[in-house]
């Protein structure tokens, strides 16, 4: 794909040269593809976090213990609250977030003065790093201009 295109017009005499700039179109296509990739990555992370918490249900294992990688799910509020958001920060930057707005989700992730942390979001991100990088670094398809 060419960012610009140079062509020669006319057959004889004064031949004109024109230049067509495609940079804006290319940048828009790149932003669109980047946002798709980031969206795919955060949806994947959201699903992994929900899966990790759901695997450790309280009815089967009891409450999570200090040092457990993931909290045990009791009433599905935590799993249902895990979500994601993708936004354009500026023309060159797309940010993706996944997590929970629940206060006790923050307590589980960071711990408190009376409870050891069970960092289920960080652990999910660490375990999924290779997949997330592959989503982001996937080769961009050719763009028509």
Overview of the molecule:
The structure is a single chain. The protein starts with a strand and ends in an 8-residue tail after the last helix. The model has no long low-confidence stretch (mean pLDDT 81). Helix 1 (23-54) crosses helix 5 (120-127) and helix 1 (23-54) runs antiparallel to helix 6 (129-137). With 145 residues, it is an alpha+beta fold. The chain has helices at residues 23-54, 58-61, 77-81, 103-110, 120-127, 129-137, and strands at 4-9, 16-21, 83-90, 93-99. The relative contact order is 0.17. The longest helix is centred in the N-terminal third of the chain and has 32 residues, at 23-54. It has one domain (30-137). It has a two-stranded antiparallel sheet.
List descriptors.
single chain; 145 residues; alpha+beta; two-stranded antiparallel ribbon; 4 strands; elongated
- Give the N-to-C terminal Cα separation: 7 Å
Uncertain spans, ≥5 residues at pLDDT below 50?
none
Backbone structural class: alpha+beta
Major beta sheet, strand line-up: 1-2
**In oligomeric terms, what are we looking at?**
single chain
Number of helices: 6
β-strand number? 4
| Biggest sheet character | 2 strands, antiparallel
What general form does the structure show? elongated
Radius of gyration: 24 Å
Percentage of residues in DSSP E strands: 15-25%
Q: What does the average pLDDT come to?
A: 81
Output the helix-strand order.
EEHHHEEHHH
Helix content, binned percent? 40-55%
Number of self-contained structural domains? 1
């Amino acid at each position: 794909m060419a960012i610009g295109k140079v062509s020669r017009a006319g057959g004889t005499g004064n031949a004109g040269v024109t230049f067509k700039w495609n940079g804006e179109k290319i940048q828009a296509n790149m932003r669109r593809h980047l946002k798709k990739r980031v969206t795919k990555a955060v949806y994947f992370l959201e699903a992994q976090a929900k899966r990790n918490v759901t695997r450790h249900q309280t009815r089967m294992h009891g409450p999570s213990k200090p040092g457990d990688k993931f909290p045990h799910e009791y009433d599905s509020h935590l799993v249902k609250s895990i979500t994601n958001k993708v936004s354009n920060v500026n023309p060159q930057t797309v940010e993706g977030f996944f997590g929970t707005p629940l206060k006790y989700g923050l307590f589980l992730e960071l711990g408190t003065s009376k409870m050891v942390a069970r960092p289920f979001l960080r652990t999910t991100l660490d375990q999924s790093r290779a997949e997330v990088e592959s989503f982001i670094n996937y080769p961009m398809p050719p763009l028509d201009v």
